Amino acid sequence: MSDDFMLDTDDLERRMDGAMANLRTEFASLRTGRASASMLEPVMVDAYGALTPINQVGTVNVPEPRMVTINVWDKGLVGKVEKAIRESGLGINPQLNGTIIMLPIPELNEERRRDLTKVAGQYAEHARVSIRNVRRDGMDQIKKAKSDGSVSEDDQKFWEETVQELTDKHIAGVDTALETKQAEIMQV
């Protein structure tokens, strides 16, 4: 291999891993019919003039399989937390008990489960597109180096195969995560 050109595969892999991490975060916010503290991660509360995650304004607990509770530390924020949950699109109706907000998780019906699997599929497709964009960036770097004459044809093939292997590994990871999440959603 030529010493002139070295593709930063660590950077490409880090960016693909970032797409996978983002997918896991989006999957965690999808309801599966079971209570989970992570389902509240995307919900932001307007607290003290800034959008703040719920876990920074109160303690999030899961005392039962179908119940999430939030013990809000500042009494003045209870209404704002309740409003943020109502407007989040989670489909959960908060119930107040002093500074504790209780979120009963309703049973998912078959139609809602199918809708959630479609949403999970959309999240997975976004992750695949992000990974393919990183692949394209890597391939563009290789083509540019080839046109500059700093990489031979054999080296070009080696680097392209390396980038493709990284891409295939991450796409397979997305597909596996999607299958797992869809099975979890459809489980009654």
UniProtKB/TrEMBL annotation:
HAMAP family, A to Z: RRF
Top-rank lineage group of the source organism: Bacteria
Name of a matching Pfam family: RRF
Function (record text): Responsible for the release of ribosomes from messenger RNA at the termination of protein biosynthesis. May increase the efficiency of translation by recycling ribosomes from one round of translation to another.
Boundaries of every Ribosome recycling factor domain copy: 23-186
Family: Belongs to the RRF family.
Keyword Protein biosynthesis: yes
Location(s), subcellular: Cytoplasm
Protein name in the entry: Ribosome-recycling factor
Entries under Gene3D superfamilies matching the protein: 3.30.1360.40, Ribosome-recycling factor
Main location: cytoplasm
InterPro entries from the UniProt entry: Ribosome_recyc_fac (IPR002661), Ribosome_recyc_fac_dom (IPR023584), RRF_sf (IPR036191)
UniProt keyword Nucleus, yes or no: no
Keyword terms, alphabetized: Cytoplasm, Protein biosynthesis
